[in-house]
Amino acid sequence: MMKELSKSILLLLLVISSLVQSFFLIYRLPGSDSVVKSADKYIKTDNMGAEENVEHLIFPEQMIIHLGENKHTIFYPEMTFYNLIYSRLQSRTFEGFQRKSVHDINWDQLSKDHAGIELKFGSGIPVTLLQKVMQIVPDPLFQAESINRIWIYSNHTENKVHAYFFSSLGDVVYEATKADLTVQDVQQHVDFGAQWTPYTKVSDSYYVPEKPIQLVESDMSIKSYTTEQMQQNLFFDPSITRNIREKDGSEIYTDSKRSLQVRQEQKWMSYTDPAAAPTGESDPSKDVLAAIDFVNQHGGWSGVYRLMLTQSSEDKSSITFQQYYFTYPILDTPSFRYGVMKLEMQQGTVSSYERSLIYVDHEGGERRQAIKLPSGDLLRKLISQKANDAEIDNLYPAYMPSLVKDRLKLTPVWALKLKDGSVRIIAY
């Protein structure tokens, strides 16, 4: 009896051992062909940037506080009052939308006379995405729109709060007839700006501070993702790619369908996959979510980014993720490409992907010093010289990046955005 039991136990151990060996042979041995990989999936590279979700990528680039009596101030992301007001507004409910012509209201006069909060997103955010960060009740009249600005103000004569959502097309505005806000709520939020830097409104587009704005100039240690990492990350079979060296010093890697161009002097990459793009009409919301998933899998996020979306045509979405250094954006300049990730999407599929390979080495040290940007009449003079009669869309503090002795330097500047979308830098 004991002999038979021993045989049974030994047989069981042999079976288990055989199964374990089979597992390692099939799944663990390098080069095994038994692991089936889907043709439409990329290999994720380890030890690259963090993953992110859409809720952390949608936030206003500016929060303009209208104090009444033609007084204004501006809060920027990560400022204490910005975070406080925005988090409170995110918890409020907006519903019952009515469509109106944007020309029905004198917005310039409204900003001078009434206390209110204006959220500027910088580009159109589809309502379906905005609903992920704000309590907006679905409404068929409103659902297909993209919103670039929200304006909430109180009218004391009516004892009522008005909440307007501006279409990115520029001709239509939607009023939320049911807003979960009181006149007292709005006034409390506005009061946070009473002792902040005063701004003067110029024409109907931008604001000039009357006191200097203080930023931090930073010099940081950096590292960079390697070309080999990106090849492994972006090509189905990196072993079949060939290398082409261009006259300008850049290198191109291609598998005959896709291509990866790397500009070594700037550590900037451009990936294209023209064969992957299907035909048909694109859905901007789905394109944005697909773009975020793609970045999560192919390089990740090396800091804080804000979504900017422009619909270039019916079948294509142009998506930019703007990088921030604490409170202000980092500019992407012709002399040094940095500060943005750009993707072209067609029906949820990436046809092009651009980004810097540089990321901050937090263990390598950082040197900082306070810098004050000009304000008031001096700034107005500099704006006039730089704009040279061009129409101005916005003015905001930003950081101009540069490489200095293999370190990343972020220099505070004023950025002047023109109506044609271009940006001119006011360095001082």
TrEMBL record:
Superkingdom field: Bacteria
Protein's name in the database: Regulatory protein YycH of two-component signal transduction system YycFG
Span of domain Regulatory protein YycH: 6-422
